[in-house]
Amino acid sequence: xxxxxxxxxxxxxxxxxxxxxxxxxxxxxxxxxxxxxxxxxxxxxxxxxxxxxxxxxxxxxxxxxxxxxxxxxxxxxxxxxxxxxxxxxxxxxxxxxxxxxxxxxxxxxxxxxxxxxxxxxxxxxxxxxxxxxxxxxxxxxxxxxxxxxxxxxxxxxxxxxxxxxxxxxxxxxxxxxxxxxxxxxxxxxxxxxxxxxxxxxxxxxxxxxxxxxxxxxxxxxxxxxxxxxxxxxxxxxxxxxxxxxxxxxxxxxxxxxxxxxxxxxxxxxxxxxxxxxxxxxxxxxxxxxxxxxxxxxxxxxxxxxxxxxxxxxxxxxxxxxxxxxxxxxxxxxxxxxxxxxxxxxxxxxxxxxxxxxxxxxxxxxxxx
Length: 368
Description:
One of its GO terms (molecular function) is acyltransferase activity, transferring groups other than amino-acyl groups. Keywords: Acyltransferase, Membrane, Transferase, Transmembrane, Transmembrane helix. InterPro entries: Acyl_transf_3_dom, Acyltransferase_3. This is Acyltransferase. α6 crosses α8 and α7 runs antiparallel to α8. By secondary structure, the protein is mostly helical. The protein has 13 helices and no strands. It is globular. The chain has one domain. About 65% of the residues lie in helices and about 0% in strands. The chain has helices spanning about 20-40, 55-80, 80-110, 115-120, 125-135, 165-180, 185-205, 215-235, 240-255, 260-275, 280-290, 295-310, 315-355.
């Protein structure tokens, strides 16, 4: 690309942005944050906690959902049919998740369970775990005796709880596409206006960050995801200016002690993400684009850290963070090479087959 990009549309091709690299950094940030929590069971020890009730992992997940909105909207735009879009989303999430649950239940579990091997493998929870979690029927399911003596006991993989909200965001976006709400600007603006009602809920309700309902969580994640979808929808008119980011950060800072903090945080985080994505990426961008390890690091990070804490009681938070990142990266590489990349190849073949069978009128996309 010649010259500095001026609008978001100019960086949406993978070779022109750092979306993959930002997702990798966000996944690593979540692992680091969890390492401090899992070694101490003290919320205050998590990075950035001193700045408020939101820690580093919280902000990293925000980035994940904004980028997901941009990328999934782009996937929808390119899909030749709704069937191929749904299949591509399923193939991106479920095979890697299934592999992670099988590894956790049948490799990690027997090594760290306080029960005997006979009791472990005769317990129905061991065999149900991969099914329940992959189907997202019971994403927080436990395993018999696993991590029972850790500072955060019996929690097998808390990181996975956000996946059901991501899938829910995909589902809502799919329904909006089927209804035609994403085909032109006017109905899409209507979606934005209706979603503003969610802003009213999270902005003006009594704040209690320690007691949030599923509706509260969905409100947060849907607004972040929708922000990414809106970025993609208006990509030709979204300017890339550091002065605008500075203004967004200033407004966020001014409103950080008010009820508007969540909304201002979302806007500053989202715009900051696309500005960072516009920077030159070099070899790091190329690596992240060729080897998408972010998902694997995210889903393996928690059980890896819990296992380290189990095998080495008293391990420091920094040591746990460093070792967890290393081991999670190794598992993520294996997952990417053996499971995720082959699934993506299958997704591409299905997309080509769907295009050969479909008529142009069946194409569902997001227009500018």
